[in-house]
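User: I'm preparing a small set of examples for a lab meeting where we compare how different chains pack in three dimensions. I only have the primary sequence for this one, and I'd like the structure in token form so I can line it up with the others. Please keep the answer compact; I'll paste it straight into my notes.
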Amino acid sequence: MAVDVNRLIDGLVSENPRVRSECARELARIARGSPAVVTEMAQRLKGPAPERCVALLGVLRLLGEAASPAYVAVVDCLSRGSASVVGAARAALDAIPSPLSTQGPSLVRRLQSSSAAVRAAAARGLGRLGPAAAGAVDPLLRCLGDPECSVRRAAASALGAMGQSGARIEEALTRRLADEDYTVREAARESLARLQGTEEALAGRVRLLHLEPDRWAGSATRRDLPKPGGAYRDPLG
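Assistant: Understood. Below is the structure token output for the 237-residue chain.
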């Protein structure tokens, strides 16, 4: 089986388009019933050839949920220098519903990556794990202060998806209601609404921003903060 898989992987970069297509279809067929084959494909993603990497990512995208064992390896591809590899990795991640629960610790480690794209994708992956990634709360809370808005947004969404309410989480998300980036504010709003269950409770959080703006929003002024009321209204929306 290993020889056949290697042959098929090599065939993905054949000069003959028909061979490439046949190898992709056959590899996908085999991989759907064999997590070991998916793992082998994930290992081959670490190779230096961008053409093979893009081809493998294309097969993983076709596999969807069956490609979960390769989730972390696909995330790592986001730090590659090739735009075609990064684009193929994003498409594959969109097609894979969730990583495996055992991959949580690996994703947590990638929250410290030098690549913002990897950090954001790792946070999204932890969010897709939901309550199974409850041990990642503290690293995700730290990511709410990341300099990149894509990472802050992903971390805010992930915290809501985990379903763990508590003072630390709700206070950290409340601060993000005054984030400079609209998409981060919206992610924080959605997570707070999910954790607190009602828009009324969320409106109470907004009022806190106005009562103690320096505590919750740092240097933000009252003019920049969300307006209090029965429902959250984004000041820039």
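A couple of notes for your slides: The domain at 1-97 is CATH 1.25.10.10 (Leucine-rich Repeat Variant). The chain has two domains: 1-97, 100-237.

User: Perfect, thanks.
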